[in-house]
Every structure is written in C-alpha cells, then in structure tokens.
Amino acid sequence: MDIRRLDLNLLLLLDRLYDSRSLTAAAYALGIRQPLASSRLAELRRYFGDELFVRTGRGMRPTPFTERIITPLREAMAIIEGKVIRKPGYDAANSDREFTLTTSDIGALVFLPPLLDVLAQVAPRITLRCLSLPQNQVHAALERGMIDLAIGYFPDVRGPNIGCAPLFEHPFSCIVRDSNQIVGTSLDLNAFLAAEHLVVDQEGSSQAIVERRVADLGLARRVRLHVPNFLSVPHLISRTDMISVVPSSLGVAYARIYPLRVLPPPFPIPAIPLGFFWHRRTEGDPEVGWLREFVRSELTGRDPTAIMTET
Hints:
Layout: H1 8-20, H2 23-30, H3 34-48, E1 53-56, E2 59-62, H4 64-85, E3 98-102, H5 105-122, E4 127-131, H6 135-144, E5 149-152, E6 162-170, E7 172-177, H7 189-194, E8 196-200, H8 207-217, E9 222-227, H9 233-238, E10 244-247, H10 248-257, E11 260-263, E12 272-279, H11 286-299, H12 305-310
Parallel strand pairs: 3-4, 3-5, 8-9
Antiparallel strand pairs: 1-2, 5-12, 6-12, 7-10, 7-11
C-alpha cells in the first residue's frame, strides 16, 4: 500500500461509518451526500483490498480487518489533530470575541437560552450576534464567512465544504385555544379533520415535514389561514377555533402566555432533525472551533421541551 494514495477524508468516513453502521448517517455527519460517501467507501475498499463493511439486516457490519485497524487508525488521527493540525488554544473565559449565528425564530427560542446561561459562566465577555436569513441564503452566508454557525433545521445546507453535526430530533404538537368548541381534552383524527387549520408558509421551515406527512396519508383538511411566519400564530389560535401544528417547544412557550392547550397530533409525524453547520474553512480557527465544541456539548441530545414543561 502506498500511503501517498490515501486521502485523510476517506479515513474520516471509515471512522464515522464504524460508529453509525449507516452510510446515510455517516454522510450526514460529514456534511456530504450519500453518493459521494458511497464512492469514498469504494475507494477505501480498493485501497485496503477488503470489503471493510458488509450490509446486514441491522446496518453495516465491520469486517474483521476493520475491527483490527480501527483503534490504531483513531490513535493516528488523534495525533494528527492534536499535535499537527490544532493551533494554540483559545482563552474563551477572557475573550471579547463576537460570534455570528443564524437560526430560525424557533431556533432562537430553543437554542439561545441554554447557550446564554452557560456563556454567562464560562465566557461572560463573548457576544452572540444572531442573523435572520432565508433558508436559501444560509449556504452562501457560510461560504462567504458572514456567519460562523447555522443552528437548526437546514435540509438544503450540504456540500463538500460544509461540516454538520446532529443535535437532536424535535417533535411536533397541535395547539388550540382553551375554549375550542371542536376539540376537547384530547385530539382524535376526526376532530383534527373537522377543524379549520392555520398553516405557516415559511420557505424551508419544518412545516414542510407536516405538510408532506398530511399529503402522504391522503388527509383532507380545511386550511382557513396561511401566514408567513410563526409570530402571529398564538394570537390567532387563541381567538379562533383553528388548529395549528407547531414544533413542540413553540407550543409550550405559547401556552405560557396565551390561553392555549398543547396536544399530541392524532397521527405520527416525523420529528424535526436539528443540527449545526459550519464551513470547513473555519476548522483551523481555534475560536470558531471552540464555539462548535461549545454548541455540541451544550445542545447535543438536549431537547428542551421536557424542561420547558416542568418549569
């Protein structure tokens, strides 16, 4: 084997694939499309002369050769990252750096409070600037260096120059006013279909997940009102008998202020896959690297809905 033919990106794929046992999940973690991940896996197989992973009914199982090399491979990668690539550390505790993020209005509600709480303790002089960008401008903003991170639901932000990492999957809820004449203390499918609906038509928003699910199930409902964002939703729902399907954290927050009830949808809806995204150009920047690890440690797997319900 000629090490000069070995691309480090191929080893990153092997590492992610070993953990996830899924080519789709490994591609998502690396911010690349599955066809590219598949071609890189084929290149790895040719280089090592081994299948590396075989498909089973429970995902991709590593071969004995992969099991043998994974530990020394990771040790080598850790040395490269820690002693070759990594620049001097970043003193966040004494930094007055301003970081620029983009997220949705829902993202500001879900992500910013826990981040600010911890920042006040570990990096009190750091400033966060949160930009509101249309979905179709987020990729370009990362490319141009306008933003350091995008946090939330960005299904179209992908590419070889974009890194991404999953945070958690967030459910949907239905909201109705307390005095709704159609919906009682629970919501069944008949009541859901009999009611009039408020739908948020925001490009690239998680509402698209709901609309695809409704279409897939062939459900016929009466949409009374379309609005461009979530800002007016609680006020309108609290004054009518309409129903709206919203991300659960938003429903819980609305119900703290308006006379609303938050109810489970009467049919399963896929959760919203939330993550954060960065441009790979910044991977050599210790300051942005610190921000990425801060977001990863504080938000990964920590859907705030349960905490919001308890407080």
